[in-house]
Structures are given as C-alpha cells and as structure tokens.
Amino acid sequence: MFVIGERINGMFGDVKRGIENRDKSIVQQVARRQIECGADALDINVGTARGKAMENMLWLVECVQEVTDVPLCIDTTKYDVMAEALKACECPPIINSSKSTEEQLDSFVPLAVENSAQLIALTIDKSGVPSDADSRVAMGATIVTKAMEYGLDVTDLYIDPVILPVNVAPKQPVAVMETLRQLKVLSDPPPKFILGLSNVSQSCKLRSLINSTYLVMAISAGLDGAIMDPTDRELMEAGITAELLMEKQIYCDDYIAAYLGNR
Ligand code: THG
Fold this sequence. Notes:
This protein is an alpha/beta fold and 263 residues long. The chain is built from ten helices and eight strands. The chain has one domain: TIM Barrel, CATH 3.20.20.20. Strands 1-2-3-4-5-6-7-8 form an eight-stranded parallel beta barrel, surrounded by five helices. Helix 3 runs parallel beside helix 4 (79-88), helix 5 packs across helix 6 and helix 8 runs parallel beside helix 9 (233-245). The longest helix has 18 residues, at 133-150. The protein starts with a strand and ends with a helix. The mean pLDDT is 97. Bound molecules: (6S)-5,6,7,8-tetrahydrofolate.
C-alpha cells in the first residue's frame, strides 16, 4: 500500500496557520509525525491559506524538505505553481494532478516526463466527476493512451477514479470499485490506482470507521495506495491487513510491525 500523507494541506487549521505565519515548526511537526506513522510520500497542498499560491507552495516544499527525504506529492491545479514546485523538489516528485481533458493531459504528462515525476490523473473531465463506472473507465483508457503517446512509463502513472462523500453521493463508492476492477485489466502492466480516501467521509459522523472500511473494500477491488491520514493507526492497520489477505504481504505474527519496519 502506497501511503501519501494528506495532512500538509491548508484545509487543516494548524497547517493553514503555519503557512500564513511562516511558522515552520507547525508544518514540520505534521510532516515528521506522518513519516513516523508510515507515510511513503507527503501530499503538499496550500489549501485556502492567505497569500499567493506560488509563494505559499514554494515555502511549504522547502519547509517539508528540511525534515524529510520522502517524495513530495505536489497537489495543485495551477500549472505554473506545479512547474516551479517540481523544480524545487530534491527527490523525484509526484504530480497531483491532471484531469482527463486533452488540454490538461497534453501539458501535465510531458511535465511528468521532463521532471522524472510520477503522475496522478483524475477521471474528471469538463463535465466534472462522472456518476457511473463506464465514463470513468473511458477516461482511464484516455489517460493510459496519452501516457504511452508521451513516453510516460505506465508504472509511473496513478489513476484516481475520484471518490466523493457518501452522504451526498451514495452510488459513488460502488462505481469507483467497479472502475478499479475494470481498469486493472486495461493494460499489461496496468497503471496504479489511488484515491483521496478521506473525501468519502467528509461531513459524516464515524469518519475513521467509514475511511477504514472503504479502504479495505477498495484494496480488494485493486487499489494500490491512498492519500490518507497515516496517523490514524486503525486505518493503517486495516489497510495493511487487507493487503495481507490479498496476498500482497506474507503472514508472520508481527506482520504489522514487519510492514511498518520494512518500508
Ligand atoms: N484525489 C487527489 N488528490 C486529492 C484528493 C483526491 N487531494 C486533496 C484531497 N482529495 C485529499 N486530501 C484530503 C485532506 C483532508 C480532507 C479530505 C481529503 C478532510 N479535511 C477536513 C474536512 O474537510 O472536514 C478538514 C477539517 C479539519 O479536520 O480540520 O476531510 O480525491 N488526487
């Protein structure tokens, strides 16, 4: 399971204050804690913090790189902010994200190739997030075709079928799993699959339970990783156990400690 820590996001009050006050200690603390808990990479998103998106992003990248050497997952829809942030990354980064429109793929796929970056591509087009699996699968095929056209290794490609909150979009969790099952057999080797897991429980009660239950379900449908909260221990343990039962880990009595220790 490839775990991208979601917490360096200006959507969270502590990180937002850290960005606005240029207070490195708050942000670096959140970065270190996620790594200690098992994050393989860190999502970097300036969210709604006051100030210029470009300056905020470059400050965040520099701040996080002072305390970690894991790959950064640059989370912005702005091409110029993405391009500058990638240049500032010391470790091969992850581009988060491109939509499935021609225009976006024609700019973000070459950007990934030029920067030796991995790319997350969303099954979102001009009309937004599709309500069914079929449209998502069609967009997934477009994404893989574009990757091949520009010479992006398919193993450096993550497709994100985009999960929405279950309280307002109750058919989406099933549609996303159906998409995962269908796209897994699209190419050999297949691309990888990722989700912004916490979206599923936004504004719901029992968030942690919904997140961990859906993580297990999505892993059984073929999910490879998630942008998620690695500091939620039960969530991490549920994901690791799902991978054990999918025969992606070998059993030993201490399989959770072995997984977290061996990364
Ligand atoms: N796909 C990709 N990238 C993404 C997403 C995705 N990046 C952003 C997001 N979705 C994933 N990250 C989060 C981070 C936080 C929350 C949800 C998804 C979240 N935040 C609290 C809330 O809104 O209630 C913040 C409140 C708080 O606790 O302070 O739920 O889908 N590729």
